[in-house]
Design a protein that fits this description.
Elements (H helix, E strand, L loop, with lengths): L18 E3 L31 H5 L14 H12 L2 H4 L2 E10 L5 E9 L2 E8 L4 E9 L5 E8 L12 E6 L8 H4 L10 E5 L17 H15 L5 E3 L2 E2 L6 H8 L7 E2 L2 E2 L1
Parallel strand pairs: 1-9, 6-9, 6-10
Antiparallel strand pairs: 2-3, 2-8, 3-4, 4-5, 6-7, 7-8, 11-12
GO cellular component, one term: cytoplasm
Protein name: HSac2 domain-containing protein
Family: Belongs to the TPRG1 family.
Length: about 270
């Protein structure tokens, strides 16, 4: 485990935060794909992100996701036992199951625990019900929160995502070495975490459940950060992924390999 170096969604008033559009303090132009300008946009009302039109038109088959075979309490209990450090993390305040988008545009199913002192993004195998690994982000290390549309450079061959996400920064992406950015195995050295709705958020049966809703997570986290560190900016901006060809991630994501699923009799 690495460490850093049902309800309706509660309303949040971002006017009381330090809201900046296109804030250059962390990331700036260097963190955006070459030839692409940072895209300014208004913060969506109540922290709502853009929905994926493909999943809206054709929601996934709920029963194929093994996360549905466990109760939220079972998920929390398993992850708390394996990943939570009572001293550094504190008590678990809320838990989510979301999609992490890594710096190579791969989707991964993650249990996300919002704790008193940290956010834990946990890889949990819902088929074997075993903890795999976790990333800990101490709230004291957060330097910016952002919500916006996920964007690629114009030269990529990957299909545009056309949906929003939330990003937590604990460092400046512009200071990340090029060799790290282009290393698919260097996620632990990327100073931000990008989270989006879990596919089950698009199913009618789960649409009102905050557990799969990245907006609910973002609002809760923003409220906590506002109370702990009022100076941390909460911004609306495009969320770039420096992607060259994108073919590998396209195959990976279309196959749903980052999720614990029943794949026509083969479960992994």
């Amino acid at each position: 485990m690495s460490s850093p170096t049902e309800a309706s969604v509660p309303q949040v008033n971002f006017q009381s935060s330090k809201l900046e559009i296109g804030d250059p303090a962390y990331g700036g132009a260097d963190s955006y794909p070459q030839g692409q300008q940072q895209q300014q946009q208004p913060l969506p009302p109540e922290g709502t992100s853009l929905l994926d039109p493909t999943l809206l038109a054709c929601p996934p088959t709920r029963e194929r996701f093994f996360v549905t075979k466990l109760t939220p309490q079972e998920i929390t209990d398993a992850c708390v036992t394996a990943a939570v450090n009572a001293e550094s993390d504190g008590a678990v305040k809320q838990q989510f199951v979301l999609t992490e988008i890594d710096h190579w545009n791969n989707n991964y199913e993650k249990v996300v625990l919002l704790c008193e002192n940290s956010v834990l993004a946990i890889k949990f195998d819902f088929v074997t019900r075993k903890f795999k690994h976790a990333k800990r982000i101490l709230l004291s290390s957060v330097v910016k929160l952002a919500m916006g549309e996920v964007v690629f450079p114009g030269r990529t061959m990957a299909d545009p995502r056309r949906h929003g996400a939330a990003r937590i920064f604990w460092g400046d992406p512009g200071q990340v070495a090029l060799s790290t950015r282009w290393n698919p195995f260097s996620s632990d050295n990327i100073p931000y975490l990008t989270l989006a709705h879990h596919p089950l958020h698009y199913c009618d049966q789960d649409r009102g459940d905050a557990i799969y809703d990245v907006d609910a997570f973002f609002i809760e986290l923003a409220n906590v950060i506002r109370q702990r560190s009022p100076g941390v900016p909460i911004v609306a901006e495009a969320l770039p992924i420096s992607l060259m060809h994108g073919l590998a991630s396209t195959v990976f994501n279309q196959s749903g390999l980052g999720y614990s699923k029943d794949r026509n009799g083969a479960s992994f």
